[in-house]
Amino acid sequence: MTDRFRETLTTSGVPWQQLHGDRRTRLTAALQAADRLLADGWHLAGPLG
Asked: N or C: which end of the chain has fewer CB atoms below 10 A?
């Protein structure tokens, strides 16, 4: 099931990251990924009207 999920994510074009390692390593990687997303800013459409 994990392989199928990973394959679906890989072919979807949506950015994702698989975390490995102990708890601290995974937490650090997750926080860095979240920081990168936040640094990119929000890409929302302009208001209507």
From this structure: C
User: What are the Cα distances from residue 24, in Å, to 6, 7, 48?
Assistant: 23, 26, 44
Q: What is the DSSP string of 9-49?
A: HHHHT-------SSHHHHHHHHHHHHHHHHHH----PPPP-
Tokens of 45: 């459409």
Name the CA radius of gyration of the chain, rounded.
15
Determine contact, residues 29/17, Cβ cutoff 8 Å.
yes
Give the whole-angstrom CA distance, residue 36 versus residue 30: 10
